[in-house]
Amino acid sequence: MTDVSGAHVDVPHTAVSHTAVPHSDVLHTLFRTEQGGHEQVVLCQDRPTGLKAVIALHSTALGPALGGTRFYPYASEEEAVADALNLARGMSYKNALAGLDHGGGKAVIIGDPEQIKTEELLLAYGRFVSSLGGRYVTACDVGTYVADMDVVARTCAWTTGRSPENGGAGDSSVLTAFGVFQGMRASAQHLWGDPSLRGRTVGIAGVGKVGHHLVEHLLKDGARVVITDVRAASVDAITARHPEVAVAADTEALIRTEGLDIYAPCALGGALNDASVAALTASIVCGAANNQLAHPGVEKDLADRRILYAPDYVVNAGGVIQVADELHGFDFERCRAKAARIFDTTLQIFARAKSDGIPPAAAADRIAEHRMAEARRG
């Protein structure tokens, strides 16, 4: 069934015999105007393994949709659908600005991965992805790892983020962090006229898969680093290696840190909201988290406070650059060179924002939308 927005609810009979029947709240989320425009949404269920998942394809204008699989204990199916739609749309824009021949897609598996993730569940999920015939290429995201993608790949040829032993590129967080670092350098160049972060103070909220690599880049460049994470073990792992790294009690304390030059949200989305923007002491926001803007209008609030925002989907594209390259025979140095161009892309966005008199987030959207529109026309 299709509404005017183009969203489509698809039951893939060839994958697994048991399929979810969407209830009215989920359908309402699928067809809300602001969530519209998606080409296809697949609701997946395999009762024997406990799998419940949503696969959202936002656009295939530039090529097969590419995006990771998030495994998370959503409070409701509606929340899971909304997250999948939002993340898929973000992937379309991210892939477009990264210069990839891929559209945007995302999958979410509903549940606590610590409790329900099994080999059988991942194999069932792989069959659902495979049923799409290559329209969606999956990879790692929050709650999924290289070892998981190795399992998914056993039932799905369209799987990236696999281990080198299984023909993949391994951990994509390495180049994600490198790309964010390039975005920070570009932000510093634009605001202060120098890309070096030496002597600057950078606050990182979330030092997990990406954040801990970012710490290494910043320290090597001579920056001072302050961190926080809801997981004490993640903080302890950083301070054990680098006792010079300062620790904030929580994110609220971090964003209020005096002398903070750059704030890097590197955990879940929605970090930039009315309260956090009002409290920010940093001059630049540049981090790895997806969907950092909690609602429309936050980008203007940042601009009004003269806080330079490096759009998240631009600077965190290093990982997707890596997994896309895996489809063509992975070469790390080739990927690193592509990820380094995030520096130039970020500067281009700041220049467009200045010339058009709009926030950087709006400028990035315009550039990405132009590339997708050109692909549809041609």
UniProtKB/TrEMBL annotation:
The UniProt entry, under Pfam families, shows:
ELFV_dehydrog, ELFV_dehydrog_N
Q: Name one GO biological process term.
A: L-valine catabolic process
GO cellular component terms, A-Z: cytoplasm
Q: Does the keyword Cytoplasm apply?
A: yes
The residues that hold NAD(+) are 206-211
Q: State the active site.
A: 106 (proton donor/acceptor)
Give the highest taxon in the source lineage. Answer: Bacteria
Pathway, per Swiss-Prot/TrEMBL? Amino-acid degradation; L-valine degradation
- Keyword tags: Branched-chain amino acid catabolism, Cytoplasm, NAD, Nucleotide-binding, Oxidoreductase
Known InterPro entries for this protein?
Aminoacid_DH-like_N_sf (IPR046346), Glu/Leu/Phe/Val/Trp_DH (IPR006095), Glu/Leu/Phe/Val/Trp_DH_C (IPR006096), Glu/Leu/Phe/Val/Trp_DH_dimer (IPR006097), Glu/Leu/Phe/Val_DH_AS (IPR033524), Glu/Phe/Leu/Val/Trp_DH_bac/arc (IPR016211), NAD(P)-bd_dom_sf (IPR036291)
Q: Which reaction does it catalyse?
A: L-valine + NAD(+) + H2O = 3-methyl-2-oxobutanoate + NH4(+) + NADH + H(+)
Q: Where does the Glutamate/phenylalanine/leucine/valine/L-tryptophan dehydrogenase C-terminal domain lie?
A: 170-378
Quote one Gene Ontology molecular function term. nucleotide binding
Report the EC code(s) recorded for this entry: 1.4.1.23
Q: Does the keyword Oxidoreductase apply?
A: yes
What class does this enzyme belong to in the EC scheme?
oxidoreductase
Q: Where in the cell is it found?
A: Cytoplasm
Instruction: Describe its assembly.
Output: Homodimer.
Q: Write out the similarity annotation.
A: Belongs to the Glu/Leu/Phe/Val dehydrogenases family.
Instruction: Give the protein's recorded name.
Output: Valine dehydrogenase
